[in-house]
Fold this protein.
Amino acid sequence: MAERTVSLEIKRQASPDDPAIWETFELEWRPGMNVISAMMEIAANPKTADGRDTTPITYDSNCLEEICGSCAMRINGKARMACSSLVDNLEQPIKIEPLSKFQLVRDLQVDRSVLFENLKKVKAWVPIDGTYDLGSGPRILPQQQEVSYPLSNCISCTCCMEVCPQFNEDTGFVGAATIAQVKLFNDNPIGKVFKEERLRALAGDGGIQECGFAQNCVEVCPKGIPLTSTISDVSRDVLIQKAKDFFRG
Amino acid sequence: MAAPRIIVVGGGLAGLAAVIKIAEAGGTVDLFSIVPVKRSHSVCAQGGINAAKNLKGEGDTTDKHFDDTIYGGDFLANQTPVKAMCEAAPGIIDLLDRMGVTFNRTPEGLLDFRRFGGTLYNRTAFAGATTGQQLLYALDEQVRRFESEGKVKKYEGWEFLSAVVDSKGVARGITALDLRTMELKSFKAEAIIIATGGNGAIFGKSTNSVVCTGSAQSALYQQGAYYANGEFIQVHPTCIPGEDKLRLMSESARGEGGRVWVPRKVGDPRPFKQIPDADRWYFLEEWYPKYGNLVPRDVATRAIHKVVYEHGLGIDGQPMVYLDLTHIDRATLNRKLEGILEIYQKFVGDDPRDVPMKIFPGMHYTMGGLWVDFNQMTNIPGVFAVGECEYQYHGANRLGANSLLSCIFGGFRAGPIALEYAKSLSGEEGDGGHAAEIARQATINNALLQNKGTENPFKLWRELGQTMTEHATVIRYNKGLKLADEKIVELVDRYKKVNLSDRSQWANTSFAFARQLQNMLHLSRAIVVGALQRDESRGAHYKPDFPERNDERFLKTTKARYTVSGPALEYEEVDTTLIKPRPRKYDAAK
């Protein structure tokens, strides 16, 4: 074995119906190693630390530069992106588990399609007339762009949902990521035509009032999106909308 | 006749652009993607998208954009489609703006533009340093709107395996693999649009995403589609070397004033701040005074290679040079480049606002791809190709910020054309070849699952990547290319003894990877043999033994046709009807 090694404990589960087991891996350390390169190494040499043959690990990944949002998992208990988890910055053995709030597929792979469904419910798009050439878009001052741009950086990794105590089957809470998209599109000069509909979609059960302001989301967000202040802003708008709707009868 | 069915394979910018146009025209689309489309590789594009909007009073025009693109591509691109793309670009930017892309703005609220490589104009619209992400999201949102209206059905987590072709050679659908249940299935369609991106995985480590294997292109190539200009691979001059991949450091870093340099003295022990200007070699600025740090990528890449390997001036003796932003104030850097600076900080640990970045060239972009006609159709009737997986818009070298444009333009063009084609297609005979194609795919799958050999597919892939990177990237010699081809032939043979360590039928990533690998091997031969036969230097293709461009012999598109014994090459005239080819030099103005 090499002089310097890296030790990983990975939670494995062959399918949703199979029992979960832990496997330990001992790999040769290399400079700049991250959790993804460690799992690539396991795929090329699928053997556990005690020399047993095993299978390559199933996990989602794509860009490996923290912009596609694929490789979210729990690493040493924390929800984060595997690609930007540098081995040298992690305590060993590195414990790796799948996100716990989503339906497990296999090993570290889970089904996060609920977020994309939520984005449909809040109509997270600008309803353009068509794609033919209709001239330039509305003027937007740089001050507004600087508010919107961070919100549109959301990579749909679902870390904010994983760490939210309110995100569970009982509440049906949509989670911070979707609320941030509501603000993004409500702030857009054209996107705001659906403002009332979006706010109403966040008004009922599973809506914004489920937020318990634990503030875990903003701490864990890999893109540093100002999630809590955004939730406050949208929360206020939802209340105003509720009041308006009440008086309109 | 029933409403035509169109299949789009790939949910990056090009695929989504095609989907939007078809849905808007009243068609319905089945959209296949390995990953949820919002996670496609287009998100990795950083710097921006080109359009000659001329909002900076510089007198920029779409004609100048056209000329820069053709010149930057060393005259290998067909000119008619490139001209159309450059003319459409300002309208595409306006549309993206209307879709809500958070482009950077001028104080007056107009779109801001910056300068990119290979041009002297501020022509690149940008959203921070995450323009590809922002553009992909805008199209993803529009597609989600059509999806909620029932016009688009997504098959996310499905991998394309092959086209279904009828007895007359006309496409009638596809076969695909459900990556979760491992179910093999065929889907009917009157037209198919392939939008599956580049093939970086063939080079092992590249700036590309994991899904960019070229597998779909290769499957079609093996089914008879021509693969064009495969030998033209862009090596991006500024990447961050990594264990798992090479991370791109956007050209926008230089567009915003970043300077490339090395200490003039071999092994200069001083920290960078103590090295005075006189002892720093800004070699790009010295060699190319007009364009400076913004020469096209192939030129910058070869210059860095030369400084490191011929002058021996790599930092700390390593293959790395400085890309320096430390002379620019932090507020400006944060406003315009934060996304990429964060990447560097996260993956390297140093703050590029304080310390120059250490970078080196890495495989980045596939200029070549499926051969298509001016209507984006391959030589398999009914199979269209758009985006990086086709060859049409960039010639021998792509200019920065033209890729996002070519993706959207190609998708917008192919969508309506495919719909019209589908409407006019006559009914299929029998089952259109579906049963036979499913049987062929099942045979491949079963052989792979039952194989009891000794070869690990991930190890074979590493060997392929090393060979390709060594012999078929920045500098190419015929001797090395021959070695590479022999090595690939050896790997194709060893692949027959592949042993999957996982034979399960649930979310089996090794199985999916092994299928991709087989396709990578066949496609890599088209790249290597194309490079071997092209005895000249043009754009990204550089042979020291043939240092000049040779228009007489090679102002031609390479078309590779698959045969069992290897790629058979043909050459096709390039459309040069609009701009007469002239020597390409960046040490002076054009």
